[in-house]
Amino acid sequence: MKALWRARELSTVAILVVEVLFFTWYLWPEAGRSHPFFNFGNFLLIFKYSSIYGIAAIGAAIVIISGGIDLAPGAIIALTTVVTGYLFVEAGWPLWAGAGVGLVVGALAGLLASFLIVRVKLPPFIATLGVMGIWRGTAFIITEARFYDLSSKLPPNWSIAGLSVDWLGPIVMIVLAAVFQRLMTGYQWGRSICAVGGNETAALFSGVPVNWIKTSAYVLSGVLAAVSGVVLAVVQGQGKADLASGYELDIIASAVVGGASLVGGRGSVAGAVLGALIFGVLRNALPQIPGATFYDRLIVGVVVIGIVVMDQVLTRRSAAN
Amino acid sequence: MATLEFKDVHKSFGAVRALRGISFSVISGEAHAVVGENGAGKSTLLKILAGITRPDRGEVRLNDAPFDHASPREALAGGIGMVFQERLAFPNLTVAGNIFAGREITGTAGRLAERAMRTRTRALLDQLHLSIDPDMPMENASAAVAQLVQVARALAFDCRVLVLDEPTTSLTDAEVEHLFRILDDLKKRGVTLLFVSHRLPEVFRLCERITVLRDGAWAGTFDRGTTTPDAIVRAMVGREPPARVDRPAVDLSQPPILSVDKLARAPIFRDVSFEIRPGEIVGMFGLVGSGRTEILETLFGLARPTAGRIRVRGADVAFRSPREASRVGIALVPEDRQRLGLHFNLAIRHNIALPWASVRGLGPIHRARETKTADQMVRDLSIKAASTSAPPESLSGGNQQKVVAAKWLATDPSVLLLDEPTKGVDVGAKFEIHNLIRERAAAGMACLVVSSDLPEVLALADRILVVREGEIRGELAGSAATEEAVMRLATHEAVVPV
């Protein structure tokens, strides 16, 4: 089983490598010019923007593995930028305190979703669809069509511990991915998430605290979306209610491309982050191809289907052997 | 003349050789039984007939033509009808909808010819002496009716060979008799029956010839007239069945581990009182719907009682979850291993370790201890698995059942509740599970075995509690109880003083 997981993540890495090699070849510059895609600055850029999706995708993967679905991350990201922006810009709080409240808001958002799912027993799709509307709406009510300009209050060329702020997202994403990968594979909590997603009734009969496990999945998804929101607010320099709209689907797609099964019980946190990077590379490289501008959404869609189909074919083949 | 012929059929799944050169033939118009322990290859044989899988080597011939179908639909069109053990029905459709699912009668532009299907359904149901409404939703059908609707479906497709896989598991005796009368009738009309079952009395009642499979190989085909159930069992297991084990008398001076006093869960059961001492095996017998499973679930914290008390080692307990119950040493081996017992997305090893680890919390997994615990259980219970890192999918039913038992035995409980511990497992696995229960009792566990298999209860239990309509109707000493006495209490007789 462990070998299987590992193989599944390896194949996601392989897809990413092939993708990078392809764009490196395709965008190879004329002699004497620097490569527009294969350079350190561009890779940092890809990491920086992918981390917004990738951090939230960690939470989405956990929820999906537990047998649920979370449609709220996009709205929670937006609300967090607004809350953090308001407290930092309007209320004059220090940034860390504003960000801290943003994370608490994310946790509460996840708590509301889990209450609706675990106690009221709504289907996760409906519960989080409603919750998505509530938090997006709250963000609009707070801002009243304004936005909070964090960049004006942040020092220019701001750096943390000698590193440019561009590194914030990538580092947070990698650290969180490592932590949650460990929690999912090496802790009974992660095993319980898989058990609940694979067979909830059998998990209950096996003494797994099912309600607690499900609650933890949605709360973590909320907190991780809020972390994405803080990163977005700092990187983008804005707190705005219509940020990150439609992100929830990209985030779910990242988790699925990374091996999460929508029927639950299977998937990987590291895979979800790799999935976010696969999309990040596409979003970065496609606009550089002349004439591809109008095709990029279409290509992204085809890639999602292609990767999941390939995965299923491979799984079926290995099961048949 | 042979209708259905198996010629040197081989099939492997990975390293597991499910069938190794099966050859036998089924004569047109006969009722032919296929028996064998779980893992003997019966399921694989059925899958080939149903068109779900194909043999690696060898050939299946139907009416002297090769039978090699790629899909269940083609197999059905080829004249083989299947009646499965599980209720493979669409609960949301009507009876008629189920019978014609996938091959609806249609009019112009694909419009469903509801009336034609209803009429045809009524005719089919009449043939089966089944007076139910074709428009009844399938979810309202009892297990017996669902089984017969599957037969009707096979007949609707004009099948010449009807394959029945353990069709009687969830039927009452009267329902079994009804089914068999219908099958006799079909046989007279020239339908060939292939009957797969663990229940030898039924096999002898219905079938003229009996083919025994053992470890994926053919172990003989017997004529009903010249063989005996004992001979069949010997061929199945390749050894004499162990005799009933005499157990030492339970020390009645010991205080009970579990005492239940006037427990009730309205409206399902009421006034349930009993005690179990260490080392004791108490059997609880009741027919389907008597409330026996609900009593176990309440003891295990899956539902709250509405009245009464449960005491463990003299202390009152009120569990809100199985987790709390398992903390004080209560374990429940549930009835439905597919739905309640197993995780098919986890390795066998992780399945076994799940309750054991869950009681310990959500912290780091001690892989070495986990593997040691699981491997120990696999050895103790002689679970036959190629690898404990594979999901339990690859195991036979009996071995899956042992994995479910292993899950809870690994927690080393002091009270072991077992719900239908040998349902759907073969004779060999049944003996092994019975011995396992006896061993654990001898080691001081208090065991409560709920079963609708009367010989099982009689063979195992020191005392037998009989449940009917949510109440305990009587208690009998295991050694003195007879099938008739227990059945009388379970069906109609007034309460007898203990």
Task: Supply the key terms.
heterodimer, A: mainly alpha, two-stranded antiparallel sheet, two-stranded antiparallel ribbon, B: alpha/beta, six-stranded mixed β-sheet, 34% helix
Descriptive notes:
The complex is a heterodimer of chains A (321) and B (498). Chain A is mainly α and 321 residues long. Helices cover 73% and strands 2% of the residues of chain A. Chain A has helices spanning 2-26, 40-65, 73-90, 95-119, 124-143, 150-153, 168-186, 188-198, 200-205, 210-236, 247-257, 269-285, 296-320; strands spanning 148-149, 159-160, 163-164, 238-239. Chain A has a two-stranded antiparallel ribbon. The radius of gyration of chain A is 20 Å and the shape is globular. Chain B is α/β, with parallel strands linked by helices. Chain B has helices at 42-49, 72-77, 95-99, 114-127, 143-156, 173-188, 200-206, 229-237, 292-299, 322-327, 337-341, 348-359, 367-380, 397-409, 427-442, 454-460, 483-491, and strands at 2-13, 16-27, 31-35, 57-62, 65-66, 80-83, 161-165, 192-196, 209-214, 217-223, 258-265, 269-276, 281-286, 307-312, 315-317, 330-333, 415-419, 446-451, 463-468, 471-477. The N and C termini of chain B lie far apart (59 Å).
Assign the structural class of chain B, choosing from mainly alpha, mainly beta, alpha/beta, alpha+beta, or little secondary structure: alpha/beta
Low-confidence stretches of chain A: none
What's the story with the biggest beta sheet of chain B? 6 strands, mixed
Give the rounded overall mean pLDDT of chain B: 84
Quick one: overall form of chain A?
globular
- What structural class is derived from the secondary structure elements of chain A? mainly alpha
> Strand fraction band of chain B?
15-25%
Strand order of the largest sheet of chain B: 6-7-8-3-9-10
Strand order of the largest sheet of chain A: 1-4
* Number of strand elements of chain A: 4
Alpha plus pi helix count of chain B: 17
N-end to C-end Cα span of chain A: 15 Å
